[in-house]
Write a structure and sequence with these properties.
The complex is a heterodimer of chains A (105) and B (180). Chain A is mainly α and 105 residues long. In chain A, 81% of the residues lie in helices and 0% in strands. Chain A is elongated. Chain B is 72% helix and 0% strand. In chain B, helix 2 packs across helix 4 and helix 7 crosses helix 8. The chains are: A mainly alpha (105), B mainly alpha (180). Chains A and B meet through helix 1 and helix 2 of A and helix 2, helix 3, helix 5, helix 6 and helix 8 of B.
Chain lengths: 105, 180
């Protein structure tokens, strides 16, 4: 019961607080100008972001294509791997000569 | 402003009608400014936040959907901006006198002194409340809004809003015992 009375009292106090009334001279001019400015800025950002996004996408597509779809093995091989390939190539190229030499022996 | 009329005005603003904006601005300006003042306690800051609220409302007016009233949406923006202000200015703020000074030739000076003391204590306590509780109590008691509207402004559920208000009231009651 006491609680209820206290509750009511608090509500009455809160509702009767004599707040100061404030007023403003700000007109719609300033607000509208600021709005136009931000609208333009938003358009500029969009205009800048679209080519940037397209550029990033193009780079990613090229990278994806070169690395995953059509990789170029020699560039990925180490120096020793390339040497091995070269030696094997030389061996194959001269296979006839080597075989003839073997036969002569 | 009636709901249908307000919808028409907003549609006109969406199409870039400045006069329509003026109508809307004049309809909400004073209410919004005084609400923000109660939260920040500085008329200059309140004016800046009010201006920013309207600019943001204009920039994002195409996102507004008539699910909630325009007033609720406007107050929601103001509450968020005020929250940001308090985060930024946690230490460097100056609070003016919130309350009107009573006339000194009152019939009962004792009662007047008691009321002044009580009101100042209430404001001090309200300012100590967590932000959501302060906003909720301000909207409930000073702006006379309903629980639904307060929940929309705070972006909380109805039950969460009721809890926030209940906690705020309990805190005030505990700390105002000497006056009651």
């Amino acid at each position: 019961m006491k609680n209820e009375r206290e509750k009511e009292k608090i509500e009455r106090v809160l509702e009767s607080l004599p707040f100061k009334k404030v007023s403003s001279d700000v007109g719609t001019d300033e607000i509208w100008k600021e709005y136009e400015k931000r609208k333009k800025r938003k358009l500029w950002i969009k205009a800048a972001l679209i080519p940037l996004g397209a550029g990033i996408t193009a780079v990613l597509v090229i990278w994806f294509h070169s690395r995953i779809i059509a990789p170029t093995p020699p560039s990925d091989l180490s120096f020793y791997a390339r040497m091995d390939l070269y030696q094997n190539y030389e061996v194959i190229k001269n296979l006839d000569v080597l075989l003839a030499m073997e036969e002569e022996k | 402003m009636e709901y249908v009329e307000e919808l028409q005005i907003i549609e006109r603003i969406k199409n870039g009608d400045r006069d329509a904006f003026e109508t809307l601005y004049l309809g909400y300006k004073e209410n919004l400014l005084n609400f923000i003042f109660k939260l920040v306690g500085n008329s200059q800051v309140a004016e800046d936040i009010m201006q920013e609220t309207f600019v943001r409302a204009l920039v994002h007016i195409k996102d507004w959907k008539p699910k909630a009233s325009f007033k609720t949406w406007l107050f929601h923006i103001a509450v968020n901006l005020t929250r940001n202000y308090w985060r930024r200015e946690r230490r460097n703020f100056s609070i003016e006198k919130y309350l009107d000074v009573f006339p000194s030739d009152s019939d009962n000076p004792e009662q007047e002194a008691f009321s002044t003391q009580l009101y100042e204590r209430v404001m001090e306590l309200i300012n100590k409340l967590p932000y959501n509780q302060r906003v909720a109590l301000t909207l409930l008691f000073f702006e006379k809004m309903g629980y639904d509207e307060i929940a929309n402004i705070l972006g909380k559920s109805l039950s969460a809003t009721k809890t926030i208000i209940f906690r705020g009231k309990i805190y005030l009651r505990k700390n105002l015992e000497e006056f009651l």
